[in-house]
Every structure is written in C-alpha cells, then in structure tokens.
Amino acid sequence: MAFSYNPYHTAQRQFDAVADLIDLEAPIREILRQPMREYHFSIPVPKDDGGVAVFRGFRVQHNDARGPAKGGIRFHPQETVDTVRALAMWMTWKCAVVDIPLGGGKGGVICDPHHLTEREQERLCRGWVRQLARDVGPELDVPAPDVMTNGGHMVWMLDEYETIHGGRYPGFITGKPVDMGGTLGRTEATGFGVGYVLREALDELAVNPGDTTAALQGFGNVAQHAAQMYQELGGTVVAVSCWHQGDKTAYTFRKRDGVDIEALKSITSVYGDIDKEKAQDMGYELLPGDDWLCQEVDVLVPAALEGQITATSAPEMSGRVKVVAEGANGPTTPEGDEVMKERGILVIPDFLANAGGVTCSYFEQVQSNMNYYWEKPEVLEKVDTKITNAYRSVSALADKRGLRMRDAAYIIAINRVAQAVKRRGWV
Ligand code: GLU
User: Fold this and answer.
1) Are 383 and 360 in contact (CB under 8 A)?
2) How many angstroms separate the CA atoms of 27 and 50, rounded?
3) Which of 67, 80, 127, 246 is deepest in the core (most CB within 10 A)?
4) Is 330 helix (H, G, I), strand (E, B) or coil?
5) Which of 146, 172, 364 to mutate to test the pocket of ligand 1 (most atoms within 8 A of CB)?
6) Is 106 a catalytic residue?
7) For the chain, what percent of residues have pLDDT higher than 70?
C-alpha cells in the first residue's frame, strides 16, 4: 500500500460523483460527505516491563440516521484518522445497501499488536472502551472486530463496558466468541458473503463457476472463507497472496491445479505467516506478493487492505478477468476503477461484496438482545438472503440505468440514508 494514498479522499470522491448523479440536496450532501462525530484520544497502556506506552485511538461515527452506528475497530501501525473516516463512511453505505437498521462507524488504534503481549493488548482494549464508554453502546454505536482485532479483544471490551455501566449488555459489541454471546456463522459470514455475490455475478454472466479460476489477495478470515465458498460453488482458486510478518513482505502462493485452503491453513503460524518451505514441498510456487493480480484467471478477490488496485496495478490484470469481488474495504482507487471500467470488468463493490460480516453482526446483536440463539444454518441462510437480495437490487438498477455496480449500490445506499435524514427532520 502506498502510504500517500488517502482512502477518505476516495470515499468522498465516490460520494460526490453519486451525489451529483442523483442531484442530492446541498444540506444532505453536507451531512453525508463527512462524519457526524469523531473522537480522538490517547490510551495509556501499562507495559509488562513496568513502563507505560501511549497509543492514539479513534472512533468515527459517520452517520446514525438509520440506527446505531456500526463498524469494526482496527489495530494497525499505519492507522490514520482519514482511513477510519473513510471506513466509517463505507459502513454507512454497507448497512444501508443490505437494508439493516444500522448506521456507520469505525474505530482504530495506531499500534502493532505483534509487539504487544496478550496482557498489554487487554489493557489497550479496556483503555479504548474507558475513553468512549459514554459515547458507544448497544443503542448508540456497536463495535466489532476488523483488521488485527478478534473475538478475544471484543470480550475484553465488553467486560470493560459492562464493568463501567454495571450490567450485562451483550448487544454492545459483535464478533464475540460463540461461547460468550457471539453467533454461529460470524467467522464464515464475511467470506461466504463474497462467495454469495460471486455466485450471483457468475450466474448473471451465464458462466459456470466450475469452469472458472480465481486469485485472491489475503489469507485472513475473509479470504479463507471466500475461497471455501467459491470452491463449494465449483471454482478453482489458483493463487493466494499473503503478507509475511517474519519477512516483512508479501508472497503469492500459486498452485495451478487448485490451492488447498485447509492444507495452507495447517502450515500458517498464529501471525498469519504461511511456511514457505512447507508450501513449496506441497507443490506451491512462490511468487512476488503483487503477482496475485496478474494471474490468468476469471475472478479476482482483493481481500487484504485498501488501495491495492490502482492506475499502475490495474493494467497488469489479465484480459481473462471477468469479475472482481472486493472482499477488503476500499481495495480500489478511482483510477484503478476507471481501468476496470474500460475493460468491461464486473466489479462488485466492497460495501456490497463484504457486507456479509456486518449483516451477520446485525443478527448477532438481535440474538444477543433477545438472549436466544439460532443454529448456524439459520444464521447463514438469513445472511445469504440479505446479501442476495441486495445484489439483485443493485444489479437491476445498474442494468436499468446503464451504470456500474458501484454507482448503483451507492445510489441505493445514499437514497436510503438521505431518506432517514429527511424523515428525522434533520434538514
Ligand atoms: N469490520 C467488518 C466490516 O468492515 C464488520 C463490521 C461489523 O461487523 O460491525 O464490515
């Protein structure tokens, strides 16, 4: 990722273009093109060695007209408030496009959890909540895991929130472990959602998934489950690219007759590093990290970080690519998008393609609030229905107005949020 890349500028450019297209009234535009509220704070964390480290934390509530703000918390050494702003804005559109009664928010801490012990991470999580305990909550703003945060972090945050407020509020946070009020299916939901939209897209193009191949960027939770669902549809994943923490670089692991996700997982360390030697013994070719994008495949799934498909990288794509399903948030720059438009590639935009996660989070919150939990197939079926309906509405609008999926998805989402803003009498 180029450090100069600013996702907030991308989010605003995308919004402005659609606001022009639908002739959005000026005051609504003013409300929606920036966050409603944001919190910036310091989190002092006592270190195990007796010292204190101070981290910078953020929570951005972009819009809560349709319901409590919703969105994950990222731990990342290169976190910036503009990244959090962009991601909060995308959460608003994500919840609106799948039509769940939630707004958009995002949080972040500038830190590298690899350099913190478990206890230090716990203190960091509790410190984050202490700074915000009055500004977040089941009826205000509901956090969740995101880049480098997980269910364990969510439980510490929940415990701190409940300690401060003196009660049990399992609907405060989602992505909780299943035995701590989480929902079955949450782990799979984001990646499976990518699979569901791919299924719809290939069906529309009248392409049999069994005749297609794919390359993925990322080997985290989203990529692994997207790959699993795509393989269940009959597709063949031929390459995955993944950051190697130990070597501080990324590699693409290629196997032309099909990547075995379970086998790769079995040789992946807790830090997410795939063992290169073992992978080569298993018949994988080791290629440079960026090579996932120029594979001769039908489907590309960027499922790592933002700003990956750019004016420079997009032209490297093979002429065979038909569909790009954006598993990550903001993986494509407007210039990269333009290249894919010229090539006629069907791009399923991030806030639709990866909405399975927050959709499942919504169902987790519903279950937490009523303290009654559904079986996994029921949860995943509900997620599939929401994602599939959203895909079909977006695709129908795109066809009707001769638009790309991203613009059509934005129109639906922005109109829904604008409607809520108006009905509340904010403008
Ligand atoms: N972090 C995920 C996302 O970007 C999920 C958010 C949530 O579950 O609230 O969609």
Assistant:
1) yes
2) 51
3) 127
4) coil
5) 146
6) yes
7) 99
